[in-house]
Design brief:
The chain has about 160 residues and is α+β, with helices and mostly antiparallel strands. It contains six helices and eight strands, in the order αββββββββααααα.
């Protein structure tokens, strides 16, 4: 009987984090409304009760389940649930893969921590800046080869360290 209640409780915790048909990660905000994160750009949007969509401002935002979403320089620091959803979604097209430099995402996760525990560190700020540059480069030139190489190099050599080191 207690196992059944445990499953019901676990399901209730996961209900606010809904997978959208369009691939956006969604969760209810504790202050009302919903946060949506686009997988390609990592841009976060607040959708109000009236359906109005506005960019989510930089900072820490508490969700209905008590967890948080962190937005820095207009993009979300991906949480484990976001990464899990995005990794199980339909494989990305070549265009979407260019728009999301995975080497830079891996660098951000390593330096900032999977739960953004080191978000306030200078190393994390630099990793986030590199990722933003790679996204800008991919949008402007259709490829982020140069910046992705910098992310890959920093990741391989551990130049920015690891969260918790």
């Amino acid at each position: 009987m207690s196992r059944r209640w445990g499953l019901v409780f676990a399901a209730a915790l996961l209900i606010p984090m809904v997978v959208a048909a369009d691939g956006d990660w969604r969760a209810g905000l504790s202050a009302g409304g919903e946060v949506r994160v686009e997988p390609e750009t990592r841009r976060a949007w607040r959708v109000g009760e009236d359906g109005e969509r506005r960019p989510l401002w930089d900072g820490v935002h508490r969700l209905e389940d008590g967890s948080v979403v962190i937005v820095r320089e207009g993009t979300v620091v991906p949480s484990a649930s976001m990464q899990q959803q995005w990794s199980t979604d339909v494989p990305m097209t070549d265009e979407a893969a260019v728009a999301t430099p995975s080497d830079c995402d891996a660098l951000v996760e390593q330096v900032c921590g999977p739960a953004a525990g080191c978000l306030r560190s200078e190393s994390c700020r630099l990793a986030l800046e590199l990722r933003a540059l790679a996204l800008d480069e991919a949008r402007a030139e259709g490829d982020a080869t140069e910046t992705r190489a910098q992310c890959r190099e920093a990741l391989a050599e551990g130049r920015l360290g690891r969260c918790g080191d």
